[in-house]
Every structure is written in C-alpha cells, then in structure tokens.
Amino acid sequence: MTAADEQIYARGLYDAVIGSTLTTLQAVAPKLTHATGSFEALQSQIDAALAPDTPATIRNFLLVLARDGMLAQLPQVIKAFEQFGAGVTRLTRAEVISAVPLSSEQQERVRQQLQEQYQTPLDLHFRVDESIIGGLIIRVGDHVVDNSLRTRLNNVQRGMLAS
C-alpha cells in the first residue's frame, strides 16, 4: 500500500466518522432544544434523546455541554462543527509516471505547473515505469494525460494498420 492509498482510506474513514457524528448531532438537537433542570435531569433527557447504539463519545460530549450550561447552544456548536470540517484541506491525489527518474528540479517544475493548472492542493507522487519508454503519464484525480512514447508509438502502429 502506498502513502497515497493510505491517504485515500484515511479520508474515507474521516468522512464516515465526521458524517455520522454530524448526522447524530443534527438528529438529537431538536429533541434537546428545551432541555432544562439539574445535571441529573439533563443527563436523563440526553439519554432519552439518543439512540441506544449512539457512540459514547457523542453522549459524553453532550454531557459536557450540559455540565457547562451550554446544551442550549448545541445548534450553534453544530454549525461551528460543520464549518470546521469544511475548512479541512482536501488533497487531490496526483501521480506522475516517467521512464526515468526526474531530477528534483524537474519534479518541482511539474509540481508547480500542475498546481497552477488544477488550483487545488495535490498529494503528488512520482513513479518510474521504464515500459513507457519516454514522456510522461500524469494522473490528477480522475484526469489522465498520457504523453508517453509507448502510447504515441501504439497510435502510429494502429494508424498504419488501419490504412
């Protein structure tokens, strides 16, 4: 598994955990809008509002809000949580494949050009594949630019066979 693969799985986990937490908090907020009373009363109201399979971290978080007298602020906390999550930088996976290793100057030039072209933070990896003979294959997200000599030769061969 490459570092890029690890990032993809980590992003999926992050999205799943944050998404389910946000969904749970959004569902419970209306049920706790008018929660009042002592801490023990608030604890009972929180327990009644939560599904039995709710993760303990969410219950504990709500209890902290109740203890601190902030349970009424839950809708604003949820909005702040959404904004915080939106601020997390999302990297786009990018790969540059060459027939020979690129120098650090060449890599930096490619990095700058891709950054200018795509205007998004890139998780850029360089790889060598001698079978492409020359040129580059560039993958950014779902986009692929194959400017390898192998592909150009295959295209010439197909053109000759079609004639």
Helix-strand blueprint:
Elements: H1 3-28, H2 39-49, H3 56-67, H4 74-86, E1 92-98, H5 104-118, E2 122-128, E3 136-140, E4 143-146, H6 149-162
Parallel strand pairs: 1-2
Antiparallel strand pairs: 1-3, 3-4
Helix pairs in contact: 1-4, 2-3
Please provide a written account of the structure.
There is one protein chain. The chain has a 4-stranded mixed beta sheet, with helices on one face. It has helices at 3-28, 39-49, 56-67, 74-86, 104-118, 149-162; strands at residues 92-98, 122-128, 136-140, 143-146. Helix content is 56%, strand content 14%. The longest helix is centred in the first third of the chain and has 26 residues, at 3-28. The radius of gyration is 26 Å and the shape is elongated. It is of the alpha+beta class and 163 residues long. The model has no long low-confidence stretch (mean pLDDT 88). It contains 6 helices and 4 strands, in the order ααααβαβββα. It has 2 domains: 3-86, Peroxidase, domain 1 (Orthogonal Bundle), CATH 1.10.520; 92-162, no CATH class. β1, α5 (104-118) and β2 (122-128) form a beta-alpha-beta unit. α1 packs antiparallel against α4 (74-86) and α2 (39-49) packs antiparallel against α3 (56-67).
